[in-house]
């Protein structure tokens, strides 16, 4: 069987400061930047992932600070095959914002869009405000994949992006 080549657009959503840019940089560059300004972020990355029978090129769209206004231009997620909605496990407020983004996706985006809910900063467990089980339950009810990640320690970061790539290979 030949190799299948796929290209898919992935968008990151979630409150400012939850670690969207850090997750992308951890995945793409293998690094964590401690004092990164939350408004500074290259907005676009391309990463090629080799799977068993396919090669998936992910076009990753990161916001460059627009998320503070709560409403990203619809063109931001238009045509996206996958979305990652990020909250910070140390911020209940950011979990509330994540739920709002998910509602917005359910209203506006294609119902076929693959969506993952991600609780980032899992290394800061001692400051945790969002219960793991509660978030997992919410994800299940809304048919979302769920991960707790840390851009700092790299926990679950490759797993997240490979899960997306595998799903793209199956469905695109
Ligand atoms: P964004 O606004 O969602 O893009 O968030 P950033 O990626 O800019 O991260 C905001 C701040 O949180 C930065 O100071 C990061 O260094 C920090 N940060 C991001 N991810 C993690 C993480 O997994 N663990 C910890 N401890 N800090 C993180
Ligand atoms: Mg950012």
Describe the sheet with the most strands. 6 strands, mixed
Q: Share of helix among residues? A: 25-40%
Query: Rg to the nearest angstrom?
Result: 15 Å
Report the bound ligands by name, code or SMILES. guanosine-5'-diphosphate, magnesium ion
How is the largest sheet built, in terms of strand order?
A: 2-3-1-4-5-6
What is the β-strand count? 6
Report on this model:
The protein has a six-stranded mixed sheet, with helices on both faces. By secondary structure, it is an alpha/beta fold. It has five helices and six strands, in the order E-H-E-E-H-E-H-E-H-E-H. It starts with a strand and ends with a helix. The protein has helices spanning 20-29, 74-77, 92-108, 132-141, 157-171; strands at residues 4-14, 44-50, 54-61, 82-88, 114-120, 145-148. The relative contact order is 0.21.
List keywords for this structure.
Small_GTP-bd; binds guanosine-5'-diphosphate; alpha/beta; nucleotide-binding; 172 residues; GTPase activity; P-loop_NTPase; GTP binding; globular
Q: What order do the helices and strands come in, and which of them pair?
A:
Layout: E1 4-14, H1 20-29, E2 44-50, E3 54-61, H2 74-77, E4 82-88, H3 92-108, E5 114-120, H4 132-141, E6 145-148, H5 157-171
Parallel strand pairs: 1-3, 1-4, 4-5, 5-6
Antiparallel strand pairs: 2-3
Bound molecules: guanosine-5'-diphosphate (GDP) and magnesium ion (MG).
Guanosine-5'-diphosphate binds next to helix 1.
